[in-house]
Write a structure and sequence with these properties.
The complex is a heterodimer.
Chain A lengths: L5 H9 L10 E5 L2 E5 L3 H10 L11 E4 L9 H17 L3 E3 L7 H7 L8 E4 L13 E4 L2 H10 L1 E5 L3 E7 L8 H12 L8 E5 L1 H4 L3 H9 L8 E4 L3 H7 L20 E6 L6 E3 L7 E3 H4 L6 E4 L1 H4 L2 H11 L10 E3 L4 H9 L2 H8 L2 E2 L20 E4 L15 E4 L2 H10 L14
Parallel strand pairs in A: 2-3, 2-5, 3-4, 5-6, 8-9, 8-11, 9-10, 14-15, 14-17, 15-16, 17-18
Antiparallel strand pairs in A: 1-7, 12-13
Chain B lengths: L1 E8 L6 H4 L10 H5 L10 H4 L4 E5 L11 H8 L2 E6 L4 H9 L4 E3 L3 H4 L5 E5 L4 E4 L2 E4 L5 H8 L3 H8 L5
Parallel strand pairs in B: 1-2, 2-3, 3-4
Antiparallel strand pairs in B: 1-5, 5-6, 6-7
Classes of the chains: A alpha/beta, B alpha/beta.
The structure holds iron/sulfur cluster.
Iron/sulfur cluster (SF4) binds next to helix 4 and helix 11 of chain A.
Amino acid sequence: MKPMNIAEKILAKASGRDYVEPGEIVDAKVDKVMFHDLTGPMTLKVFEEMGGGSVWNPDRIVVIFDHIVPASSITAAENHVKLRKFVKVQGIKWFYDVGRGGICHQVMVEKGHVCPGELIIGADSHTCMYGALGAFATGVGATDMAATLLTGRIWLRVPEAVMVRYTGKMPRYLSGKDLILYTIGEIGADGANYKAVIYSGDVIRGLPMDDRFTMSNMAVEMGAKTGIVEPDDVTLSYLKDRVSECFTILGSDRGAEYSEEYEFDVSDIEPQVACPYRVDNVRPVSEVEGISVDQAFIGSCTNGRLSDLRIAAEVLKGHKVSRDTRLIVIPASQDVYREALREGLIDVLLESGAMICNPTCGPCIGVHLGVLSSGEVCIASINRNFIGRMGSRESKVYLASPATVAASAIEGRITDPRRYLKGIA
Amino acid sequence: MRIEGIVVKVGDHIDTDVIIPGRYLGITDPSELGKHALEGLDPSFPARLKPGVILVAGRNFGCGSSREEAPVALKAAGVRCIVAESFARIFYRNAINVGLPIVECSGIHSYTRDGDRLSVDLSSGVVEAVGRQFRFKPLPDFILRILEDGGLTNYIRKLRGLPT
Ligand code: SF4
């Protein structure tokens, strides 16, 4: 038996096997599934078309309203009604309605629905975020989700693994977002297609959970099936008080194989910006400084967490949002929102002129709370800058860290955040 | 399974946001979705997609969001098969699941032109373009069975002993 990496080990466990290898197709048992108000309606339609009936296990299903909350249209409201009914009829245990949870991926990790070593399937492409806790988590579409709801199983191809190691000394101004943008710029938007990315090295060991979530979240932006950080003390202290179930910590064997290995020294990396219309069109901030922005947005499952709001408040404290732009801030969850209030961050942001909206995907999906008109430019802490992502096909989105977005909001144009961070020359 | 059709070409990294923009999500009627297929790339696209089209794409077709509305819209717009240099993985699964045949075939994109006639043999793994044959790795048997059943929904119905 050859040594296995963590992704292979989890898939072997889920499929009741001692050993699996890349390229094999396994029939795996899932530990949890998640779907939300945007992928839910299609999932339920297919579920009925498959003959309906009862879900395989109502205790292992999590339903979260986040994309369009509160409902912004009659269609959205009707979809919410359909989903609420399904949750009730099926006796689904975990349901986060309007005002109860927040953005699905944040709720999944924050409320303890993700354990290391688990196989989790979500009807959303950024489900890969849970890999930051040492799970194998991946996104699927509505039909796969419907079939999994019925059977509790899914077929998966065992992916090759890509090892990305970070070395050097992490500068204080740099965040997980900068690291992942840099990585995507190097590896490319399809550089890890079908594969599992494993993030490692001393730099990762030193990164707080929030930054690890950001990095795993964006693994799909390199085409990856999932993005995993092997569990350590940081993981365990995050899980403490959140997770009550027992779980098995799995890690890669010594000598495990990877189809590619990358090593990046982070010591001199500048803050990074991904330019329209591709996530791998990444530049150091110094090359794009000065581009005017009509809107700045801090939020989403990528960067709407507490540490993101903290750094935004640190940058914005004592400054005002430029008259030439506007800043929208959306905490990723109700819990993040409350904690940010308690810490006084919301006050600092409001004082600077930011508009705070309720936890939701909002402008990230280009449907409500900050949709862009043609010709407008936005700098956002989100994960995608595709054509029309945040509204008009003639709008443009630049992706950056919350610090860079906040600094850009002050100046009304793309700005290096180092100028506004304490203790940085 | 053999499919014939007329080529409509698109480029590299066509993401699901341009295949079906976010504002149309929530619509579940396939024919309604089909009216907006690839509209995000160019508003004239839906008119170019007629029944019998084979979409020929470059690298990483279908990257981005997991929205199944993307392959549903393309299928409803008349696309019979997608042949690309490579696909993003969620789109790949979704296309098979909704019964839209999908083939990864290298070299095809630079060789073909809009309007070419193409034939795809899924079981033997051959694409025939004007005067040339391209080989691809045939789909595994159980995936072919899902496609023959018209998608995962019918496949599951059969497994459950329900009429299809
Ligand atoms: S915040 Fe954006 S990327 Fe995250 S789940 Fe919502 S729409 Fe998707």
